[in-house]
Write a structure and sequence with these properties.
With about 110 residues, this protein is mostly beta strands. It has one domain: Jelly Rolls (Sandwich), CATH 2.60.120.10. The chain has one helix at about 5-15; strands at about 20, 30-35, 40, 45, 50-65, 70-85, 85-95, 100-105. Strands 1, 2, 3, 4, 5, 6, 7 and 8 form an 8-stranded antiparallel β-sheet that branches. Strand 1 and strand 2 form a beta hairpin. The termini are far apart.
């Protein structure tokens, strides 16, 4: 198998592993991402402070999608962190193995 083919196949499989769910009412869920490896997520919007929960050993950079500035940086395994500001964001997630990242409205 050629290196180029492996890269294309790996990218295709990574796309398969990434899924997004939007549903504010049930448990204040804003968005959830599931994957394996590194991705940049689609933007999501919050209208109040929020928290980010993740399962897996990850580095997560939170970017403002308005100006691409770094809003927060998180690192660790199976953690929860609080983000005090509302806005439009996207995540750059890097990790190995299967992971889940959940964004919920803070209560």
């Amino acid at each position: 198998m050629t290196t180029r083919f492996r890269h294309v196949l790996s990218s295709a499989l990574m796309s398969l592993f990434v899924s997004v769910a939007h549903a504010y009412p049930a448990g204040n869920l804003i968005v959830e991402f599931n994957g394996n490896g590194a991705i940049n997520t689609r933007p999501f919007e919050t209208t109040w402070p929020w928290e980010i929960q993740w399962k897996g050993d990850l580095v997560i950079a939170v970017y403002s999608s308005d100006d691409n500035s770094t809003a927060a940086l998180f690192q660790g395994r199976d953690e929860t962190s609080y983000v005090p500001t509302a806005g439009r964001y996207y995540l750059s997630i890097a990790g190995s193995g299967i992971w889940t990242v959940t964004v919920r409205a803070a209560q």
